[in-house]
Amino acid sequence: MDKIRIRGGRPLSGRVAVSGSKNAVLPILAACLLVEGEVILDGVPILEDVHNILRLLESLGMDSSWDKDGSLRLRVLEEENSFAHYGLVRTMRASFCVLGPLWAKRGRAVVSYPGGCVFGHRPVDLHLKGLEGIGARIERKKGDVHISGPVLGGQVYLGSNFGSTVLGTANVLMAAVLGRGETTIDYAAQEPEIVDLCRFLNACGAKISGVGTHRLQIQGVARLEGCRYRVIPDRIEAGTLLMAGLITGGEVEVLGARPDHLAAVLDRLRVAGARFEMGWVEAEEGEDLGRRGMGGLDPARVPVIPRQAQRPGRAPLGRDREAPFLADRILYERTSEPSGGGEGGDCFPFVRVLPSDQLQGVDVATNPYPGFPTDLQAQFIALMTQAHGVSLVTEKIYPERFIHVAELARLGARIRREGPTAIVQGPERLSGTTVMASDLRASAALILAGLVAEGSTEVRRVYHLDRGYEALEKKLRKLGAEIERVREQ
Ligand code: EPU
Q1: I need a surface site. Which of 20, 159, 164, 255 has the fewest CB within 10 A?
Q2: Domains in the chain and their CATH numbers?
Q3: pTM above the 0.90 mark?
């Protein structure tokens, strides 16, 4: 088993590119079960979770192959098997997302319950309620969900005490696109990953409107055709890399960080005293930076914008919104569509975090998008251990998602928990030791802490990290971190 060893104390500097979004690509891959013909996906990150879902899809009759340029080709070859068994589903909750598409395309399916998770109970009741609301007959037998009946369409409401459900919205949406009638999903998740799934499905011929809002309207169609599509960059990886720059007091430019996807995060960081520049980097004529995928992008090949050539512009908030916002300086005005989230694209958004003198503690509460993401809560706590004063970090999506707190405390962090809130007292000098990663984002938080801890920090159980970050330690090493992967005896 591998572990990550870090020697802390080096400010990071340079530029780094984020990979395609894990949480966007997993449901998009499941959605390929709906499609007739070939799908080509660009920007697919190379991750354990991606390999896992591809294994599951293969068992369900899908063929997949990687092109030399990093694109992934997918095609359903046979549709006989509609059973996603526990052995393949238990490793990853996103596997449960094959339920909707299998049912819609093959008429029936059996999918194992995904099981527990280290950060508490994660039910799938809303997935099942939503599917029943559009015609599914559901039986629960021996740990499996059996689904059958026609996809009729209907009106469903997916809200809960914790907001909407991301993968639940994906499941209902994927079934509804091949439904006989019209479906309305109220309190649908608005996360950029759901927007990406909608855009992909629409590119295949689906009829979804209200994309990006809490009300999705879906007009069922008879079939979906293959298409070529590029996945959005990973906003959680982008946020993690920005915090890595900040925690070390360095200057890091994160290519593929979309300010529109990171508004809540940039807001909190800015209130804590961080300063940013942001803008767009454009490709050479004829070159399509995104085609190779964000992950495959070599930052050295992306032209640096000379400072004197930088024009003041409006904040790059993405396709839909533009407003002066957040950045201390906007370096470049957007002239074409951002990379990620569709076809083509020849410019990259970037956010550059500048060295800050002193960070102040700030409070944050996680919330559904566009609120502060729960998937950056652990990393934010790590950052706040280095800020001056007290920070209250409240978890509103998964009130138990705090296992990293005990491990951060082993590095010397002063953190108390009161119910769903972690109370962080900083700045605290951290001192390296061996720590255990309990889940994906906890691994990232421990690595961030290791970057500033004195001496050597060893993070064990890094298979969690490999599930969802593409080559994080290599990216950090390129930015100057003293970090290596060590094979454990
Ligand atoms: N919930 C229910 N019933 C359901 C489904 C969810 O009560 O049927 C509750 C959950 O317990 C939670 C809240 O609703 O309190 C939100 O859960 P959601 O369903 O939105 O989570 P998810 O779709 O299972 C995705 C991401 C998670 C991310 C959450 C929240 C993927 C593959 N996973 O999970 O990502 O934390 O949304 O944004 O997209 C990660 O990447 O590390 C990760 C855990």
Answers
A1: 159
A2: 2-20+233-487 (3.65.10.10), 22-230 (3.65.10.10)
A3: yes
